[in-house]
Amino acid sequence: MKAGSNFLNAVSAVALSASMVVTGGSVATLVSASSAEAAVVRSIQVRGADRVSADTVRANISIKPGQNFSNADIDESVRRLYATGYFSDVRISVSGGALVVVVNENQLINAVVINGNRKIKDDKLEAVLRSRPLGPYSETTIEADKQAIRDAYAAIGRSDATVTTQTHPIGNGRVNLAFVVDEGDRTKISQINFVGNEAYSNSRLRSVILTKKSNFLSFLTRKDVYSEEKLRADEEALRQFYFNNGYADFRVISSEAVLDEASNEYVVTFTVEEGQRYNFGDVNVESTVEGLDSEELTGLIESRPGKVYRAKDVQDTMSEISQRVAAKGYPFARVTPRGNRDLGNGTIAVDYLVDQGERAYVERIEIRGNTRTRDYVIRREFDIGEGDAFNQEVIARAKRRLEALGYFSSVNITTAPGSEADRVVVIVDVQDQSTGSFGIGAGYETGSDGGFKLEASIEEKNFLGRGQYIRLAAGGGKDSRDYSLSFTEPYFLGYRLAAGFDIFKNEDDSEDYYSVDSQGFTLRVTAPITEDLSTTFRYNYTKLDYSSSNLAELSTPYVNVVQGSPWVRSSISHSLTFDTIDDRTLPREGIFAQVTQEFAGLGGDSDYYKISGKARYFHTLLEDADVIGSLSVGGGHMWGTGSDTKVFDQFTLSSSDIRGFESGGIGPRARKTGMSGYDSLGGTTYFTVSAEASFPLPLLPRDSGFRGALFVDAGTLYGNDVNAGSDTVVGTDMSLRASVGASIIWASPFGPLRFDYAVPFKKESFDETQRFKFGIATQF
Fold first, then answer.
1. Contact in structure between 683 and 719 (CB atoms under 8 Å)
2. What are the residues whose beta carbons fall under 8 Å from the beta carbon of 403, sequence distance 6 or more?
3. Which of 252, 505, 550, 718 could crosslink 519 through cysteines, CB 3.0-4.6 Å?
4. 554 Rama class: left (phi>0) / alpha (psi -120 to 50) / beta
5. Which DSSP category does 107 fall into?
6. pTM score, two decimals?
7. Do 89 and 147 reside in the same domain of the chain?
8. In terms of Cα–Cα distance, which of 326, 327, 285, 325 is closest to 302?
9. What pLDDT is stored for residue 511 in this prediction?
């Protein structure tokens, strides 16, 4: 009786009053305590639970028999039970010495189907749904699922898609749930307007942003899909464009998209204020850190006086100085640029202040939003880790690297206070995007070996979310077949070493008197030296198998090859690459230069040493007209290191090196006595030079991706170490070839395509020419 009396006293000390709480659309009756004294119950009774066991209900409440509880515990228990999603109503009360939990169960979902969807497959939509078979039927969850489906359709340009649901009871508290989709029409973008721009035309600014007007190819490119996120990215792209062209005061006043519901088309308008254009004024480095010499740091400055002001130059200078200072043992040093505008002269003087920043350490790097890419793929782009000195410039450099990967549609890095005053939490928010592609390319070459050539490829830049690159391609034409497989691991053994391999097999029956099959592989590893300079080592193995139906028709060098096949070439090579190109798709500024040396003789039948190089410089000639100029040079020389140089080891020039000539169409050639045709021998030395200007094609919208080009090519291939026997050899002298021509370039959804028409105006009588060339465009 004493225990019962104590319980009654405890209950009597608590003034119980009924209160109504709305949770998830249901009403629950709770017990509210008006006294600070807590109650105790001996047991917990569960009523109304049929499919869900009573033990499951008890496990999801915070109140336990024999323990004190209060109104806050009752509130928490109700929230927990609703959070399971299994109940539409929850009521908790005290009766005698028992806590009574009365629940009404939600129906269970037996099956989930999606109807009416044609543009997006079931598996893509099912991935965004929270309603699952054998899960609870929840109106709140279903409304969220309907919105998720609408968002998926908005992402492909169908913002007016609607979603309804249908339910079909099947008994025992179970229902089948169907999402019914009306996909609607594609929402298009009819106009993209700019207000306030004077320095650059609307068409030039449209080429800067990601959002594009709708055209006949939009159903493939999806570049006319409107979204708020893309609009914010467009604002940032405009800012970077103006900041890097001297307009340091530029700002986007507003950006808006207005939907015309009658036509289902958006009109996008950017209102901007350009401001004045500046050049760099005086540039200095000041250091308040003891032991750091400002004069030494001055040599790292990218922003030179008199040059057009570019925010990128300031950013690069900060990065260079920060790395140099950290390497000297000052991990907490901070580099801050200070700009002083001279409106009268139109200059900005920049002082880089190096001072001792606050002593702070990275407590942890928290990564959020990556649904596919592994955490370690993101972490390895940071030059700092947990416990290292916090440096804002290192964080900014990591952001640029993550953006350059192409794995994410957005990258945002922020900081938050850590557990201690000198601790910082780095928060990385990313959003994965599609990194796989399927490409189909076509080309056509005229001449005796010409004809249509097709290639299909599958490419994945972020294989299994591990950051690995893989590409599988197959192609061929009338007399050829090509197969290749490439794989690259960008961080081999945890180091910043890009290791990979290439496997290939080629079958070529295009020659009149012989055919050749080649197969082999390359093992490679690339290491960065600086942000712009890298070095690559390769091992190359190639097996060549020649065959001929009529040896009598072949010249002496080829007779020797065919009789001795198969031949093996085993070599190692080393390359240095300097790359400051601003855009791999359409370069407007920068240099790409590469020098390669190769030594063959590690077994096999080839013995030689080669050195070759190429460089291409891009520069925008007319900014608003978007006229881009480029100048390229190349050259190479080989030395035979064995007793006999093979005909397939010498240099040959392709139809892209000097347009207007066939691949292998110039250089030393051999003719068998009594025969009329010449066979290409290749050469020991070559030089090429090319000048080109590209521009948007008139009368076509720039968003279509069509550009024109005018070019002049020149070069030579000469020298011969192949023993031609009694055959007549011509073209061994340093005779110049040159051509002039025009091109049409299309950045198609299937890859960049190019049509060249070139007219040789300096050639030799035995050269093989080719005026038309159509195929996949290559820049480097």
1. yes
2. 411
3. 505
4. beta
5. P
6. 0.71
7. no
8. 285
9. 65
